[in-house]
Design goal:
435 residues; 4-stranded antiparallel β-sheet; 9 helices; alpha+beta; globular
Length: 435
């Protein structure tokens, strides 16, 4: 009998849930979230009959994983992990025994996948063209927009057409993505999302500025009336030796490059110094006090941002040339530990800060640098006029020479022979450091 075989029907949501349950993947509480994740990431879409239709991204991902030899799209690895978690819950195994073997297994899988990452790139190339090369997908916003750091040629600003490649209808409200594309290098760089306007950055002399790390021209993005600078190459390839992390958006405000005037990041700036007291008292979880730097100087401020941003701010001494998180390997004046043993308890960890002073701006008894905890070192706060904020009181940067403030213009140790420092008896100070 003549005939032809037909491909199986696409899987429905009910069938997928049944298959996941059969293979021991997820629980009643998490299965729905797993399905939402694959839709949000654009791996597939639901058709009119509520069946899952794979997108090129999902197909390329499966092909790439399979070519690596792991078949990470198969349920075996996840099934074994969930079985081990159930064994812990039932008391048949300990957390320590399971964690060690699972971490070793995942580390081996990660290392092999990382070594064979080119296979994933090859799979993507079979289903997608190079970013920015398809005229049907991108519209040109401005030619000769900014300079490429690789070839020194001019790049073009492009925007994804609203009807092109929109394979994830769940994100229809998202603004069209923008890129800068270099025709010579055949390379494109994604622009920050959710910004209404992107323009080249010019300094005070109206000259374009190049990133000292990669020589790409610096750009400015605007969001809700606020401007921020970024390098298109560093934004897409965050430099780890200058504070970059793949998990965070990398703009000039995060960069720790020492010679760039736009770099406002600080060493350890993404590490919590201590939990935010304002957020803790109001019941807002996740408030972290971080070390930050701006044109006004160093400060400690809460990580909870947005329109209803937490107002917790501690302005740090302007006499400091550099402020970083204390490193236990640094030979400090007072204590060798980076964590404050007085303020740290079971509910919070408090880290110390290291202050490196500008020459001649502090009394000699402070020495070249000082490592301390700003929360419990009251004498340090008195000497350097560091004020801890109270709830609903915003701390502003105090500038200028005032009898009530510390000022910003002291230039020599002669300032400390008396006057404000007379409370210490007007005595001469040595250079041995505080002790």
């Amino acid at each position: 009998r003549d005939g032809a075989t037909a491909p199986p029907n696409l899987i429905s949501e009910v069938e997928l849930i049944s298959a996941m349950d059969k293979n021991g993947i997820g629980t009643d509480a998490t299965i729905a979230q797993h399905i939402t994740t694959i839709l949000d990431r654009g791996y597939c879409v639901k058709d009119a009959s509520q069946r899952f239709n794979p997108n090129p991204l999902g197909i390329a991902l499966v092909e790439g994983y399979n070519s690596m030899g792991h078949q990470l799209n198969k349920p075996d690895l996840r099934r074994s992990m969930e079985a081990e978690c159930n064994a812990i819950a039932d008391g048949r195994k300990t957390k320590e025994a399971v964690l060690g073997s699972v971490v070793l297994q995942m580390l081996q899988c990660f290392n092999e996948a990382n070594a064979k990452a080119a296979k994933l790139d090859e799979a993507m190339e079979r289903h997608f063209g190079r970013l920015g090369t398809g005229n049907s997908q991108y519209s040109v916003l401005q030619g000769n927009f900014s300079r490429c750091g690789n070839c020194n040629g001019m790049m073009t600003l492009k925007q994804v057409r609203s009807s092109a490649g929109n394979q994830n209808p769940r994100n229809n409200n998202q603004a069209p993505s923008k890129i800068v594309h270099c025709q010579t290098c055949s390379q494109a760089h994604m622009m920050p999302k959710f910004h209404s306007n992107i323009t080249p950055y010019f300094d005070g002399n109206q000259q374009p500025t190049s990133c000292p790390i990669c020589q790409f021209q610096v750009l400015t993005c605007e969001n809700d009336g606020r401007n921020s600078q970024f390098c298109p190459n560093c934004y897409n390839n965050p430099p780890a030796n200058h504070g970059g992390s793949p998990s965070l958006e990398f703009q000039c405000s995060s960069c720790t490059h020492r010679s760039c005037p736009l770099a406002k990041g600080v060493q350890g700036g993404d590490v919590e110094v201590y939990p935010c007291p304002f957020c803790t008292s109001s019941g807002n979880a996740g408030g972290r006090v971080l070390l930050k730097r701006s044109n006004n100087g160093y400060r400690l401020s809460c990580s909870n941002g947005g329109r209803d941003a937490c107002q917790y701010t501690v302005w740090l001494p302007g006499e400091a040339r550099e402020i970083t998180l204390a490193d236990s390997s640094v030979n400090v004046n007072r204590m060798s530990q980076a964590v404050c043993q007085t303020c740290t308890n079971q509910s919070q960890l408090v880290r110390k800060l290291r202050f490196v002073w500008k020459q001649g701006t502090v009394p000699p008894h402070y020495g070249h640098d000082e490592t301390t905890c700003v929360l419990c070192d009251s004498q340090f706060r008195i000497d350097l006029d560091v004020r801890l904020p109270s709830i609903n009181r915003v701390q502003s940067r105090r500038t200028g020479n005032s009898s009530m403030g510390r000022g910003r213009g002291r230039a020599s140790s002669s300032n400390y022979s008396g006057g404000r420092w007379g409370g210490r008896g007007g005595r001469s100070y040595n250079n041995q450091g505080r002790g």
